[in-house]
Amino acid sequence: MSDSPERISLAGRLRNNFLTGLIICAPLAITIWLTFTFIDWADSWVTPYIPQRYDPQYYLDVAIPGTGLLIAVLLITIVGFLGKNLIGRSIVNFGESILHRMPLVRTIYRSVKQILETVLKEQSTSFKKCGLIEFPSPGMWALVFISGDAQGEIAAKLNADGEEMIGVFLPPTPVPTAGFLMFVPRSKVIMLDMTPEEGARLLISGGLIAPEYKPQGQPVPALVAPIRPAGT
Question: Using one digit for the tens of pLDDT, what is the confidence trace for 157-213?
Fold first, then answer.
């Protein structure tokens, strides 16, 4: 019976070591797998359209991961550079005028372009803040991403009473790829200090990974406990 606690302690240490190793290795392995999966996906789309005389794999006779992705990035950068000058802008406008004449294609093109311009625009304030709203009933709070002030007809109709309305996006847990777009009074939203990335991690983990919060003005706790006099 004297060996039982020691055996339990050894088993506990092995279990803790395994869990620690799993926490270290699993995110690294998943990140590497996702990275190479994305590279292979990009290569499968771009590499078949590369002329053979310009393909490095033809001369080396060895598959080089990332060749298609690198070429795609270079081409996109060149197109962006050309699209800024007068001639390139004229070509882009001509191509868009053709797309705008196609009933179904123009709807898809305008929607995708508007989404990308909103997301990639440097001055955009979309999803740069997180907040809390009472949902689905009073006393129950849900995490939302702030998309911006209500605009256009929505602002004209909802702001008629003088209450400023803002748009919020309420995603589900644990996959925040869909959700509800709602317009609520600004006074009903509790703004948070956490970043959208921290809010996304909180949602994906189901509340298990909460960002560290340090209230402004609160002193930093001491790393070493103060030494108390003997007898106290």
Answer: 887 677 889 999 998 887 777 789 999 999 999 999 999 889 988 988 888 888 888
Residue 227: phi, psi to the nearest 5? Answer: -85, 125
| Residues paired with residue 145 on neighbouring β-strands, in sequence order | 130, 169
Q: How far apart are CA 184 and CA 202, in angstroms?
A: 22
Phi/psi region, residue 29 (left: phi>0; alpha: psi -120 to 50; beta: rest), is alpha
Structure tokens of 231? 């007898």
Tell the burial category of 47 from Cβ atoms under 10 Å away from its Cβ (0-12, 13-18, 19+). Answer: middle
pTM (predicted TM-score) = 0.52
Tokens of 215: 């209230």
CB 127 within 8 A of CB 144: no
